[in-house]
Design a protein that fits this description.
Order of helices and strands: HHEHHEEHHEEEHHEEEEEHHH
Radius of gyration: 23 Å
Mean pLDDT: 83
Oligomer: single chain
Shape: globular
Number of helices: 11
Helix content: 25-40%
Structural class: alpha+beta
Largest sheet: 6 strands, mixed
Strand content: 15-25%
Length: about 375
């Protein structure tokens, strides 16, 4: 990975702005039912095509505050909390539902396993930093909350954290086309929201519409001096869209696409006073990333085509489900009522005035 670049000023408008919200309260009130409908579809097992795993909704802070109670009313809260990931950007009034598929999760697991394998090698050595390396944990998608209310909660694809640290040191995000435009915004949220305690944000983007490109981007915190002579913290992109797979699916053996980290990246600077040597390198090559992605895609195809191994015999006559309890029946009835309301709200949302549609389309 190349050395950090000089501080650069991010041009105005380089981040995607949220659509201009509808003018009427009635139109605004259709957003939460749309979110409920999306959660319900996921719970009911409706599959999503590649690129449809990052759903964005314009949602102000008041609506976001009401979302939990609405999810609980229709018995979707548990699924939302345990099966989905979500993000909120209060500065932009954007809410995101993450709906990762099997390919996404498999690719992610191969990368995290490799990071943990290398950390374990250091932990088993006689290095002064062995104890530090052994303590780093995969915090997976545990929700990250910041003290500054300008930065909302996020559930990353993967995160690596020392148990004594408030925040993970390294964040890993996998993206398709819809999510890629929000990666710079996410990197800013993580790095600025944590006051640079999150030291590396890795974004891996995989294209599927007319291309098989796959690339790596990396962000680090950097302190620079602005035009007024004040020090300011920024999230600096040090690696930008470095390919490790080309348009047609061939390996691109690019040294810039290597995920090159130092052990110190996995914890806040405060650990430097306790551990004197955190310079060991941890890296994943372009060849390894390519292999992990190909393996994940092969697994996803096998599952989709139902070619995975299953047991050859079924020595039973029937399968007995557990008996339903009366409260469950009541909940089901109530869900039916809310499902109808969600459908009506979704239809209303499609009839938004032309100015809203125009402002939304400009952001895409």
């Amino acid at each position: 990975m190349s050395a950090p670049l000089p501080l650069q000023t991010t041009p105005t408008g380089s981040f995607t702005s949220p659509p201009t919200p509808p003018a009427t309260e009635e139109k605004s009130s259709t957003i939460i039912p749309q979110i409920l409908a999306a959660v319900r579809r996921h719970r009911d097992g409706h599959s999503l095509s590649a690129g449809k795993h990052w759903l964005r909704f314009p949602l102000d802070v008041y609506e976001y505050g009401d979302l939990e109670s609405q999810l609980r009313k229709v018995n979707l809260w548990d699924h939302y909390e345990h099966k989905l990931r979500h993000d909120y950007f209060p500065s932009a009034n954007i809410f995101v539902l993450r709906m990762p598929g099997s390919l996404h999760e498999s690719f992610l697991s191969y990368i995290t396993k490799d990071f943990l394998r290398q950390l374990d090698i250091i932990a088993q050595s006689d290095s002064p930093s062995a104890v530090f390396a052994g303590d780093i944990e995969n915090s997976a998608s545990a929700e990250i909350n910041f003290e500054d209310p300008e930065y909302g909660p996020h559930q990353p694809d993967a995160s690596f954290q020392h148990p004594e640290a408030q925040y993970p040191g390294v964040i890993l995000e996998l993206s398709y086309s819809q999510k890629k435009r929000d990666l710079p915004r996410l990197a800013n949220e993580y790095i600025l929201g944590s006051d640079a305690d999150i030291r590396v944000v890795i974004g891996i983007d995989v294209e599927y519409k007319g291309s098989k490109k796959a690339s790596v981007s990396i962000w680090h915190p950097q302190i620079g001096v602005n035009d007024m002579g004040e020090k300011e913290l920024v999230a600096l992109q040090t690696v930008t869209d470095q390919l490790f797979r080309d348009d047609v699916g061939n390996l691109v053996s690019d040294p810039q696409a290597i995920l090159q980290l130092r052990l110190e990246d996995f914890g806040t600077e405060a650990f430097g006073a306790k551990f004197t040597d955190l310079t060991q390198s941890i890296h994943i090559s372009a060849e390894s990333l390519f292999h992990f992605l190909e393996r994940a895609e092969a697994k996803a195809r096998r599952l989709k085509q139902k070619e995975g191994l299953v047991r050859s015999t079924k020595p039973w006559v029937r399968k007995r489900r557990r008996d339903s309890t009366p409260p469950e029946q009541l909940d089901s009835d109530r869900e039916g009522i809310y499902a109808e309301q969600e459908q009506r709200a979704a239809k209303k949302a499609m009839k938004d005035d032309g100015s809203y549609k125009a402002s939304s389309s400009k952001q895409k």
